[in-house]
Amino acid sequence: MRTVGQPSGVGRFGSPTDGIGRCPPTVSVSAARIVPNVISFQTHFQARDDDIILASKPKSGTTWLKALVFSIVNRTRYTPSNTPLLASNPHQLVPFIEFTLFADVLQKNSAVKVPDLSGIPSPRLFSTHIPYSSLPESVKDSKCRIMYICRNPLDVIVSSWHFGTQDHPDRARSVWTNMEEYVDKFCNGEEGFGPFWDHVLAYLKVSLEKPEKVLFLKYEDMKEETIFHVKRIAEFIGFPFSEDEEIRGVVKEISDLCSLSSLKDLEVNKNGKFMPNFENKSYFRKGEVGDWVNHLSLSMAERVSKVSEEKLKGSGLTF
Ligand code: A3P
User: Residue 1: what pLDDT?
Assistant: First the structure.
């Protein structure tokens, strides 16, 4: 990390990533603490044309997309038997901008630390939950590519609820008291990284206007046709599979390696931690489309569906 207003020097971890872009754990994730991180990212980040940025609302399939993109990009370097995915959570391999790379940038003396990302080899893989409108101009103006993954809001609600309450009960209880209240807040757009529908629609709009800039993915479509989407992702980021690779089953191999059951079963994802407060296992639950029926009452589901229908009207997007 470099510190603005102070002599440059070696940062907290010496370098933000190791040779394969893997990040050491960071310390805090509360909303108030990430705002300076986001501002620093907006102010200082210089995108490269070959950067690849994965964007999403939390609990939309970010972890899965990270594992797939890392595997696609690095497939000539690693095989399923020696891939870093065996020893690292996907969030360490494709770091979050606001939680990890630009973590805790605000210092006690009000100076702002700026990470030096210039040493990361191309293509750099980053991820973010930041809305499109809040991305740095450098990201929007460069040729860097963004992949956005979205998911049925009903399943996002249920996944978020489990992530928040089961795995981090103390933190969650201070925010939501029960599912009904959480649904209410979700529908009112009172949640981290802004209202769900605004977030999704903004990325969708750019994907339609500039398909070479943003690839818009749906979790449900990826579950249904994983192989097709792995190939689509590879093409979009400029790493298409050759005919020979397809014949040799490389696409299937990557899809299998990155499946929920495969990642969930790894020791690192059973017992490891990605940040002090985040156990790797909390990123791998059921991964089922439509699990919301087991957790939301009819009235809660109707409320979300009504808002969803209104918000998505005319967009062509359905869940
Ligand atoms: P559920 O809670 O419905 O099971 P995110 O990665 O954005 O935090 O989203 C987490 C959701 O994606 C969780 O959904 C999790 O189980 C699911 N998930 C994680 N890894 C996955 C994978 N490899 N394939 C499919 N779904 C996955």
Answer: 43
Domain extent for 238:
2-152+195-280
pLDDT score of 291 more than 70: yes
Residue 249: inside a domain, yes or no?
yes
Q: What is the pLDDT of residue 103?
A: 87
Cβ-contact 291, 117 below 8 angstroms: no
C-alpha 285 – ligand 1 centre gap (Å): 6
239: domain CATH number? Answer: 3.40.50.300
- pTM, two decimals, is 0.90
- Whole-angstrom CA distances from 200 to 100, 110, 163, 305 are 23, 34, 21, 15
Provide the 10 A C-beta neighbour count for residue 236.
Answer: 21
Number of compact structural domains in the chain: 1
- Over residues 214-261, the pLDDT tens digits come to 999 999 999 999 999 999 999 999 999 999 999 999 999 999 999 999
pLDDT digits (tens, 9 = 90+) for 21-47: 343 333 334 567 788 899 999 999 999
Distance 61 CA to ligand 1 centre (A): 5
Residues with CB under 6 A from ligand 1: 56, 58-64, 67, 155, 159, 162, 258-260, 263, 283-287, 291
